[in-house]
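Question (not urgent): is this output format expected?
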Amino acid sequence: MKILLCNVSKKYETNAHDYVGLFYLAGALERDGFEPLVFHGKPEKLLEEIEKHQPEAVGFSCDFDNTQLIVGLSKKIKEKWNIPIIVGGPQSIGLQQKFLQDSQADYILRGEGEVSLPRLLNAVLKAEGDLHEIKGLATIKDGIFIETTPPEIIEDLDGLPLPAYHCSLHKNHVYGKLIFTGRGCPYQCAYCAPSPGKHQVRLRSIPLVLSEIRLNLKNNPDLNYIIIMDDTFTLNRERIEEFCKGMKEIRKDRDLVWYCECHVGQIKNWMDILPTMIDAGLIRLQIGIESGDQKVIDQYNKHVKVPDIIEFVTYAANCGLAQIATNFIVGGPVEEKDATAGLIKTLTDQAPGVIDIITGFLRAYPGTQILENPEKFALQLHDETGLLSGDDYPFVTPKGRSQDQVMKDRQELNKVIRESMQKKIKNHELKQAAVMKQFKAAMNYGIRSRWFEEISANPRAYEYYYVIYLNEGQAFDESLDFSRDYPQRTFELWRTMTFTQGFPILDGMALSPLEYELLLCCAGKRSLEKIETELYSRFGDSYNNQAEFHEKLVDILYQFNFKYWLTHFMI
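Got this back:
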């Protein structure tokens, strides 16, 4: 029996992701004798696949942005094919009787579905088993909304089959980038959806995890970056060390880097594990901060202190970690003025070129304290139907502030982030090693940090660092060797220089005759010594001696370097 599992979205390009959860479900169905098919893409393509494959049932993964989309698709499927429709996924905990009535879907299946979904399909399609014994199920029977006992929590994760990527309908898509080593999180942040089993940590054995990674590498020769999806991968030091030991062995045969999340409140007790993780290929680490105001952080129940965050970020950057990702929430409880902006500036100062900051609106997910008791946080919900939002949940603001004001707050915070970064770039305050890691992450592994984007937005800086990244030039330092250094421009003059006012202007700077001629000479074809000799013969009369001219030349060279106009190489 064919069972189609799908994730649909109009907003996001779903083909860019793995949707590993669907493939774990597919593996469980396949083990139980079903023929699962997995689809992730645009809704109009889904109906074509149903027509082509004629499945016996369809399962939808309900996420934060596709609830209303599923309602419409479910009705169309029901009207044309009249097959069972099951809706699960991370947001299914918020679905109730009205959703079933509006969508004409048959069942809501909450929680981890690897055990309950095969049982449900056996009961529905094969008349094997009792629906009432399936945990986490909601349906309408004889006009009455029925909910069974809470969802089953899977204790033995090692007993689950590996993701059945071969069940994908997207034959040109390569999988294996996403992996999990455990499920659950011991923390209870106020804004985080408490899905069934969320607060019960269960871990897979590291040898099994490493075996899955090796299998994914075998099946995907181009795979060079994996994302560990766990909420709390860094809970246990010994387990991290075991994972890193295995990754170092894997990396002997393959250039493979990885990402994970961590909770600063936990890992601060043994930060010295970071060099081990970096040595094993850790390239990007995400930490939760959410606010620069300690009172708000405490309201969110995050169990972390601002000084610990600053200390951790500073230490991680000094250890050589390429990227530290974090997010600040906009629209949450009222903060002390400039608290978040101040922390952003501090982190940018402590980890320039490394700390990768984004912002996001507070979301009122089903089951969260934010949704169920906004008054506790002095918050208010707007558009509770979600019809005016890009996703399916209410817009949240502090009491007394409008949606427009909160959107402006986010714009202002993003301005602080960008200006802080651009200032570092403009003033050459980034360590070259940190920038080179951003280029390597982007060029080798497709990991484009905000630093890389901001450097790319500065054409001169991008060209400068790109030349250095390609090892076709290097930055000037205090030990210039005029006999061996060959200076070269990082751009083409005809594209960038103007003469509209009768004299050369580059990046808004008017060039003196000496500066212009020096720039012309910096084509990577002559040493500084030969360039100096030529220019001294033409401009030397304005100086007391060649030593004074030499000092002036060095000063101009460093100015050019500071403006990202020049690099040099040695012969």
